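Quick one:
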Amino acid sequence: MAINTATFELGIRRQKAWGGLIALALFLAGIGAGLFLVAAFVERHLAAPFNLGLIAGILLVGVGSSLAFILDLGRKDRFWRVMLRPLKSWISRGVILIMAFTVFGILYLAPELLAWLPWSKDGGLGSVFLTAAVLSAFGVIMYSGFVLSYSPSISFWNTALLPVLVAVYALMGAVGATYILQLAGGISTANLKSLELLEIWLIITSLVLVAVYLLTMHYSSTAAREAARLLLKGNLAPLFLGGVVLGGLALPLVLTLIVYSAGLDPAASSAVLVIGGLCELAGGFAFRYVLLKAGVYNPLY
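Output:
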């Protein structure tokens, strides 16, 4: 069996505790919370009802992300203990934020499903529930970045830039998911224009942040430099360069620019945006997966 002597001599080893299920949990949490925020923006500022987006966001976070996280636990019967250390653990804070978002999101949406409730979405109490759900959604989006950045033993994650990058990725993917849901949700083409412009800037920002992040890591510690090498030249390079950069960022950017500037008919625009949205979601999951897989422990000297 061949031995990577350079890696052996440096004492570098990759983390193996977090893999596909954690990547899926972080992906669903970010996309779901972001989707709720986009749906709330569409309803409040574009005056277009988008209950489907609100419901999908709550389900992705409250059911999808929670289930993926539970499935990854060694002792699933002890899941409730995860939330008992909010002062010391970002995982505990994340679980609490997910629970708060799910509860307040349901309370905000409930009058649409149960007409006998003594409040409405547009009323004072509904606005209170929406504000709490929005704040919780922002917390859910940020926590997946913080839970990684508070890892001093893995310098590739241990940077304040990571929560920002993860948050932008979540919002970008949420707009991509909105393109898909709008086929059944009834958002008009005119309202989509605002989202298209937002998406263009989110993708450009993501590209810049990814480049800055990798450049910073390249000139950081030995372990961080090795992690960046894995993404650019190592065994993670095909998935990162092909799936994350080209398929998940560059292609959706080109497609969105075409729709925004070319004046396509509504049917063609929707089809192109759906393709772009699917590429973004696939690239968003791939981004989180390679981010975890590139986690390299700092060497012990």
